[in-house]
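Thread amino acids onto this structure.
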């Protein structure tokens, strides 16, 4: 009862501080189901409505300022409204929103992707990362003449039907109603970080066209990948004639200018990109070996004798996204944005772990590159490179802060910081002072949750 009363008090303080967001949520709920436009933006008692974002900061409609770690769901490695990107988009606006044809800026964008992503010999653009993973699976099926795919537990590849299973336990149950059972019959779900289990799956079913994974780890790196396992994937998949697909929608250009594949030195056959690739404008891409990417060409051009894979999409390589993408990737190509963002995340992880130790809280901060995570509970061995207890460690990590997620974020917001629950992304414009303030906000928030009986460890 005390915990419920304390949680209600925190809800009330949050609501009192954000009356304009509350009114907008009520207004929007009349025309938008659940009042939200993205499932992960659901928040109790209502989500914030954001007015503007600049650099590492954002301001809501009630004029509160926050250090931001959402960064457009990880899109803005350069921070919000980077002046170089803004200038590029403004210049393109004067030339037209949509060409309805090919453009030189689109060509330059493609050249940059192929320059930066180690496995990218050719590229096609989409309008989201989810579209990119969907298209990559189609290309793999077309190239192999096979139907099935292997995906891993905890790994998320968008909301299309083929990958709508194996995201959370029970693994055999689709994560959404409305996904046909026949479609799910084409998807094989197995635990990650177990190459013997993968080989067994490929041995047992010769109809596997592709193996797809988040190469940093499931749930946007919430459950880390074993680098040794990652290194074995090309040989294992190629032995059985399957296409290896890296879903670098989240990790692309963040781990390094060339993504996870540059960071670990492991090359896939196809790569799905999104988020950073378009510099903040909706976009995605599929890139990979020419032999596979030639599936888009007509029969005479490809020489394969196969029908081409048609690829439509009104907004593919649209000039606004291309302009933002070229401006962003040109800056990314120096390597500095990823390095600075990683340094900030390293400082945040280190500072939070020191805080947790000082206040005797069983919790851990972890992650790679500029993606940071936290979790409540004793530190699992997987975070120190021991993957022998992967299945149970993965279950623990996927819970994050459990029932404390919402009150923790409420308290953090009241202290001027907006994490994605207990996680987030850093940018190259977060400053050392932002990290210090964030650690301080965590300390104040945890102290409050403890004092009020919401957090009892």
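Threaded sequence (457 positions):
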């Amino acid at each position: 009862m005390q915990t419920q009363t304390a949680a209600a008090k925190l809800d009330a303080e949050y609501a009192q501080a954000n009356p304009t967001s509350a009114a907008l949520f009520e207004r929007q709920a009349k025309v938008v189901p659940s009042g939200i436009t993205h499932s992960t933006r659901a928040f109790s008692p209502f989500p914030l409505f954001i007015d503007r974002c600049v650099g590492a900061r954002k301001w809501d409609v009630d004029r509160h300022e926050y250090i931001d770690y959402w960064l457009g769901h990880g899109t803005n490695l350069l921070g919000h409204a980077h002046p170089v990107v803004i200038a590029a988009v403004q210049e393109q606006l004067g030339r037209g929103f949509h060409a309805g044809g090919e453009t030189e800026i689109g060509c330059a964008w493609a050249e940059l992707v192929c320059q930066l992503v180690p496995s990218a010999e050719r590229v096609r653009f989409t309008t989201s990362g989810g579209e990119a993973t969907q298209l990559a699976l189609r290309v793999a099926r077309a190239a192999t003449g096979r139907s099935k795919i292997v995906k891993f537990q905890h790994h998320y590849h968008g909301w299309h039907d083929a990958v709508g299973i194996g995201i959370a336990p029970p693994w055999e149950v689709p994560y959404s109603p409305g996904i046909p059972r026949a479609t799910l019959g084409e998807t094989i779900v197995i635990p990650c970080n177990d190459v013997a289990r993968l080989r067994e799956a490929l041995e047992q079913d010769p109809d596997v066209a592709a193996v797809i994974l988040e190469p940093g780890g499931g749930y946007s790196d919430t459950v880390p990948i074993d680098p040794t396992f990652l290194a074995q994937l090309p040989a294992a998949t190629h032995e059985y004639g399957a296409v290896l697909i890296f879903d670098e929608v989240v990790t692309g250009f963040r781990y390094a200018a060339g993504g996870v594949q540059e960071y670990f030195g492991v090359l896939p056959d196809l790569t799905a990109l999104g988020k950073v690739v378009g510099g903040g404008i909706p976009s995605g891409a599929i890139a990979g070996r020419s032999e596979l990417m030639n599936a888009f060409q007509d029969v005479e051009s490809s020489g394969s004798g196969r029908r081409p894979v048609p690829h439509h999409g009104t907004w593919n390589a649209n000039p606004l996204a291309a302009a933002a993408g070229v401006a962003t990737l040109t800056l990314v190509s120096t390597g500095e944005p990823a390095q600075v963002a990683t340094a900030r995340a390293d400082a945040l992880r280190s500072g939070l772990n020191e805080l947790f130790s000082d206040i005797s809280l069983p919790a851990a901060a972890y992650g790679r590159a500029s993606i940071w995570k936290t979790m409540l509970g004793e530190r699992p061995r997987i975070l120190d490179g021991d993957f022998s207890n992967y299945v149970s460690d993965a279950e623990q990590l996927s819970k994050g802060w459990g029932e404390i997620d919402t009150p923790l974020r409420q308290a953090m917001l009241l202290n001027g910081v907006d994490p994605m629950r207990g996680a987030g992304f850093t940018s190259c414009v977060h400053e050392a002072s932002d990290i210090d303030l964030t650690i301080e906000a965590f300390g104040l928030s945890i102290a409050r949750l403890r004092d009020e009986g919401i957090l009892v460890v």
